Amino acid sequence: MMVKVTGHILTQQGFVDGTLTMAENGRILSISGISVDTKIVREAGLPIILPGFVDLHVHGGGGVDVMDAGQSCEKIARTHVQYGTTALLATTMTAPYADLHRAFSDMASVVKKPSANAARVLGVHLEGPYINPGKLGAQPDYARPVEPDELAQLHALAPIKLITLAPEVPGNNARIAALVAAGFKIQIGHSSGTYEDGVAAMAEGADGFTHLFNAMTGLHHRKPGMAGCALAHAHFAEIIPDLLHVHPGAIQVALRAIPHLFCVTDSTAATGMPDGDYMLGRSKVIKCLGGVRLADGTLAGSTLTMDQALRNLVDSIGLTLVDASKRVSTYAADYIGAHDRGRLVAGAFADVVVLDQDLQLIDVYTEGVAVEHNS
Questions:
Q1: Is residue 86 within 8 Å of residue 341, measured between CB atoms?
Q2: Do 210 and 132 contact (CB within 8 A), yes or no?
């Protein structure tokens, strides 16, 4: 049975007032309508139809963490779809191999057989353990250099789409070219490296930056640092637009410098939950005052959801709805080569969010199937 939604639809050419038809195979069959001025879309009172959100950095949600295993990944996917995320990468923490093996075993079944009423888990973002022990942030202290055998064993369990590493850690930069040749996307993050370390890593094939500005050397006019490398050379980078991890002014700087800056939540088990204590890998974190922190006050991921990220970009940062949509959907999908997601075009997966004029969610569709709202 075909499903149709009507309203102001964001196409590749801009908004149209029309109808989007989803086929039984979970793909978009067609989009028809007449062009409308973007400026009137939020004033017209019609539903606003955008691509489903794509989040490449998700640690948890609904009270559970990716590293918990035991079907936690499925619950996380069910939590985030309620906020419009239709595709995500389950993101690990720095941990001993046994912990990673257990988590990957859990994620494998969710990647292979998606659940109803859940975001599609496209694979894994291996944020640790190949990071700098001096820039752990909220990561546990199990950092180590890239270990190809370990990596291969984990990838055989569940597909690794993205690896965060610190290129200045001895041996890591020399591994980048081989990792890229094997099909992994490499982001620089949790790094004490210099600007020059970043440039060298990009020359080897690293082409992204994990939660830009956070857990990396900052920009100084005589020591540009890893943040300076990203601003000078990157085409893609993550940023957390919860307005807590990064000042709005710094987000503006990144938007001017990095063409395909895209948003991630870096969400934790506390996402969608009341204030209290939660786990982030092996670390206890505290949700309070709109953020998540370790006991010493260190930011430890977030409770951001992608629908709120969209609203922050538009209402606080001042982006157009067209630009903001690309940064919560299209650019992230493009970065990992998922060109049939993150856009509304015939033939793409029918991952769709329907919003009201205040950019609050009305409906979510994953591969053409309406998601049931949590009561």
A1: yes
A2: no
Residue 70 pLDDT > 90, yes or no?
no
Give the integer Cα–Cα distance in Å for 213 and 340. 30
Measuring CA to CA, which residue among 53, 13, 10, 111 is closest to residue 351? 53
Tokens of 226: 């890893």
Residue 167's contacts (CB-CB under 8 Å, 6 or more residues apart) are 173, 176, 188, 191, 193, 197, 198, 200, 201, 204, 206
Whether 245 and 214 have beta carbons less than 8 Å apart is answered as: yes
Q: CB neighbours (10 Å) of residue 200? A: 17
Q: How many CA atoms lie within 13 A of 218 on its CB side?
A: 4
- Residues 41, 16: Cα–Cα separation, whole Å: 9
Q: Of the listed 55, 99, 106, 266, which one is catalytic?
A: 266
Q: How many other C-beta atoms are found inside a 10 Å radius of the C-beta of residue 46?
A: 17
- Evaluate whether 238 touches 212 at the Cβ level (below 8 Å): yes
The letter for the amino acid at 182 is A
Position 1 pLDDT exceeds 80: no
The helix-helix angle for 195-204 and 172-181 (nearest 10°) equals 30
Residue pLDDT, tens place only, 140-182:
999 999 999 999 999 999 999 999 999 999 999 999 999 999 9
Q: Is 242 a catalytic residue?
A: no
The torsion angles phi and psi of 140, rounded to 5 degrees, stand at: -65, 160
Instruction: Let me know how long the chain is.
Output: 375
| pLDDT, tens digit, 9 for 90 and up, residues 172-205 | 999 999 999 999 999 999 999 999 999 999 999 9
Give the helix/strand (H/E) hosting 197.
helix 195-204
Model confidence pLDDT, tens digit, residues 45-61: 899 999 999 999 999 99
**Which pair of tokens denotes residue 141?**
């202290």
